[in-house]
Amino acid sequence: MKEQRRSWANLYAWQLTRSGDAPLFRQIYRQIRSAILSQSLRPGTKLPSTRQLASQLKVSRSAVVSAYEQLLAEGYATGKIGSGSYVSSDLPEPVEGQGARRPAKTAARSVATETPLSGDFVDVTVQGEERPFNLGRTLVDIRTMELWRRTSARVFRALGHDHFGYSDPRGLPRLRKAICDYLRAARAVRCEPEQIVVTSGTQHALDLIIRVLRQSDMQAWIEDPGYSLTRQALIAAGVKARPIAVDGQGIDVGAGISSAPRARAVFVTPSHQFPTGVVLAMARRLELLSWARENKAWIVEDDYASEFRYGGRALASLQGLDDSERVIYVGTLNKALFPGLRLGYAVVPPALSKAFVTARYLVDRQPSSLAQAVVADFIEEGHFAGHIRRMRLQYKDQRDVLVAALRQRLGGEITVDPPDQGMHLVAYLRRGRSDVAIERAAGDRGVIVRAMSRMYAAAPKRSALVMGFSGYPRRMIAPAVARLAKVFA
Ligand SMILES: Cc1ncc(COP(=O)(O)O)c(C=O)c1O
Q1: Nearest residue to 155 via CA among 391, 380, 385
Q2: pLDDT attached to residue 1
Q3: Mean pLDDT along residues 296-320
Q4: CB of 138 closer than 6 A to ligand 1?
Q5: Is 339 in the pocket of ligand 1 (CB under 6 A)?
Q6: How far apart are CA 227 and CA 466, in angstroms?
Q7: Does 127 sit in the ligand 1 pocket, CB within 6 Å?
Q8: Beta strands across the sheet bearing 298-302
């Protein structure tokens, strides 16, 4: 026989007072009725069997049977004693003075107080839509899907005690070693496995970094234009985010020194500036490292999507150039694999290690060991490298198809160059067109383009469309560009 699914009513904290005046059956009846009226037990919920409830309450079965008979007679329950009783979906009108207590929605709303986070400065709409050209989406091909399934199934089959308890807040040693080996080889990061802290992704790492570095009146440089979630995380934590202009060489370090020489930190995307795609020039890298060393400031290097390099000369990580251990390197597996994974990592300089691990422990103790075990196997068995190789080819192809379609359909309206890295491109608008107006009109036609002008804080804005190409197979690209072209017409 199929096993019956347990109902919440089995777990309900039923209580009786034996010294009370009311007979036991009446107390049971009242308790259940009041749980039904207050909607603690929802319509359709299966009530415990009379035998079960009698044993749970340590009363005779006949007391429970009498209570259930009364509930059935009054319409609070339906079904049959012996074969299952349920909370009725068609409840009787409450008798005067015994009205159903509805959840106090309006009260909850009025109690909510204003906090820096209650404004709508962050757009929390889910980015998961299928509509091109959303940013940050990835593709998972059949091969990766199959390997992922197989690896997960094996990890889940071998489920042992190590997965049931608390584990190292920095992450599984095996995964940290695998990440460390990968970063040394692929990004010339100087690291030891002890410095790796597994996070749920870049956003989590940024949060931890801000907690660790935060001081009263703290200032931090951010790139302008830049990644809004870095800026917003800083603002939400009460840090003064000082926007520093980005030019063709990356963040203007000289401008940063003039405007906020005492900043405690700088948040940069040196290998592929977000959103412009500019690579931070070597002279600027050295200037930034030297400023950080002299001012005891910290550099946060967000190396997002560096796995997807399509050409040109890749510069190694900024962290790898740093002799003074002032760089906190941040990477994500949510782009290299897929955003739903929620795993990433930070490479933490030894001086910050204790504080960083403490912050991690206080926020959420540790990452899920099961997901980590799957990723560790995936990397160790070479599937990660294989996935990156295949996706690099696929994303490059999608990039080229998008550039060709944009040039063909909108050559007179935009200027676009294929980026050497990453998952998005920037199409600059000619003729003084408003990117915000195009973003809106394209959205109405089911095409997502992000207005670059909205990614600036203080620097002179450039009008451009930021478009993600990684998440969309080539067959979707040309039709979407055709729809976008209609907006320009
Ligand atoms: C600049 C930048 N860094 C990092 C990420 C990845 O963030 P997460 O790992 O939190 O998904 C993104 C994603 O869009 C990004 O644009």
Answers
A1: 380
A2: 42
A3: 93
A4: no
A5: yes
A6: 12
A7: no
A8: 196-199, 344-347, 327-332, 298-302, 265-268, 219-224, 240-247, 250-251
Question: What distance in Å separates the CA atoms of residue 14 and residue 321, rounded to the nearest whole number?
Answer: 65
Name residues whose C-beta falls within 8 Å of residue 246's C-beta, 6 or more positions apart in sequence: 223, 224, 225, 226, 252, 273, 276, 278, 459
* Cα atoms in the 13 Å half-sphere on the side-chain side of 64: 19
With a 6 A CB cut-off, is 304 part of the ligand 1 pocket? yes
**276, 277, 278, 284: CA torsion to nearest 10:** 100
Q: Which residue has the tokens 């608008």?
A: 429
Say what the pTM is: 0.87
Q: What is the pLDDT of residue 337?
A: 97
Distance 453 CA to ligand 1 centre (A): 19
Segment 147-190, tens digit of pLDDT: 999 999 999 999 888 889 999 999 999 999 999 999 999 999 99
Q: Six-digit token pair at 184?
A: 């040394």
How far is 64 from 69, CA to CA, in rounded Å?
Answer: 9
Contact of 436 with 454, CB cutoff 8 Å: yes
